[in-house]
Amino acid sequence: MDQAWWQGGVIYHIYVRSFQDSDGDGVGDLLGLISRLGYLQDLGVDAIWLSPIFSSPNADFGYDVSDYLSIQKEYGTLEDVDLLITEAHERGIRVIFDLVLNHTSNEHPWFIESKATTDGEYADYYIWSDEIPNNWMGAFGGKAWSLDEERGQYYLHSFLTEQPDLNWRNQKMVDQLFSMVKYWLDRGVDGFRLDVINLIVKDETLRSNPKIFGARPRPYDMQRHIFDRNRPESHVRIRQLRKVLDQYEERMLVGEIMAELPGEPELAASYLGSGDELNLSFDFSLASVRFSAQSWKRVAKRWYEATGRHRDPCWVLNNHDLPRFAGKVKGNEEKLKLAALFLMTQRGTIFIYYGEELGLPNSRIKRKEMQDPLGKRYWPLHPGRDLARGPMIWNTGAGYGFTTGESWLDAAKGANYYSVENQSLESDSMLNFYRRIIALRKDDEVMQMGHCAFLECSNANILIYTRTLGKRRRLVVLNMGSHSQTCCLNAFLASEDVIALRLFSTHKVGRVEESGDGDLELAPHQGSVYDLIDQRRKSKSS
């Protein structure tokens, strides 16, 4: 079956700063990442997505770019990028860059030129006003407008004051961004994750957002963001960007869609367009709802309905902005394996975050050690994003194999338990479970691309669904309850001539066996995958 590499693929999200340090400065880098490509190949991932690696003063750790065409010195050089792309491609691994297009650093040459004059070449590369024109707030605190003394005007910044918003109504600026995109595509980059891409175009007249009344954690959340994001013109610009990528073979765009709520699948899906905007769009509903069969079924069905049969969903539980899912389930490995099984048996593209395959929990960051500007501003109302950005745990030695120096962030509590070194030796470890379930997915087109249909079950703790591709069918049964559960497998086989051959289970179940002749007993948080075989078709073919 013909499909693009990302369709049905598994993409591994790397926070470069925390993955592998090669020079002992306590900060991960590109040469360190290159040294771990063998691990990623063995894990079975199809691509890696790197957090921003462009030059930056690090006000927001790379999400404030000062030069899109050079590499942050602590991460490496352009030659290191070329080596990474070459070596990754030789191992069958694609490389995706994180691209911030809504804003730059205030140290970017464009902004330095823009603030110098009101009528120069770069004057309108950013959004300026003689006075504060509206009630817009910054997502990281305070008003979204700050006075620049040199220019004598206010500039818009949707996040930190150090992150001025670009003016996407300026065609010359847009042309320069697109030229930059081509530069990286020409160097072999396989795609881009687009940061807060639904914010790029603002209301032309800068109207105030309607207020939301009631308690909210941040002033930013106290208004409906209808004029500072999700403008119709954003879709126009994304379609233009997509045309740039389509000039190259097998390149892709995946977008972060900032929403009012943690999960708004219809909004996220709207940025897929008619197959002419983003290739993929993130929805974070699974990370925000209760761990239960009914909640996950509701979320998944809604996401499938939003994307439709002819657009591709993608699935994610963790990223650099969210507390780790392991923290949500209190480190329960049975729940973590069940969640992984759910993800790997869905149609579309799967994103996993470094350390997720180890069951890595949140790091414990003391207030005085916090690095994240969002956490510094809103602690303790917001725990900060450092929780999910601790170092990768490679071994039990000093620095956990991540660094020979002092890590920029502390490791998770009990880090030795989660090390790659230890887990590689344990057949039932989280790491080896991920290796097996990714291999199952890669070897089975049905799991990657087959239609998903959720089935009704009288037991509310049981989540059950089929995957169908042509005449091939799989059945997935998950017990998301904390106690053993029973369900009648026969009720889901549609015919007495159909048997269910167990292909995979989260639990030890002995030899591969056939089921379908009675009740199915499931241990707490057990999930199993079955191949549904029609005996009549089998006998005819033989």
Q: How confident overall, as mean pLDDT?
A: 94
Cα-atom radius of gyration = 24 Å
Query: So, the CATH homologous superfamily of the largest domain?
Result: Glycosidases
Biggest pleated sheet: 8 strands, parallel
Poorly predicted residue ranges: 510-516
For the record, the count of structural domains works out to 3
Q: Report strand %.
A: 15-25%
Q: State the CATH class of the largest domain.
A: Alpha Beta
Q: Termini, distance in Å? A: 25 Å
Share in helix = 25-40%
By CATH, the topology of the largest domain is: TIM Barrel
How does this structure look, described?
By secondary structure, the protein is an alpha/beta fold. It folds into three domains: 292 residues, Glycosidases (TIM Barrel); 139 residues, Alpha-Beta Complex (Oligo-1,6-glucosidase, domain 2); 94 residues, Immunoglobulin-like (Sandwich), CATH 2.60.40. Helices cover 26% and strands 18% of the residues. The chain is built from 16 helices and 21 strands. The strands form five sheets. The chain has an eight-stranded parallel β-sheet. A six-stranded antiparallel β-sheet has the order 14-15-16-21-18-19. Strands 6-8-7 form a three-stranded antiparallel β-sheet, with no helix packed on it. β7 and β8 form a beta hairpin. α11 packs parallel to α14. The longest helix has 16 residues. About 1% of the residues have low confidence.
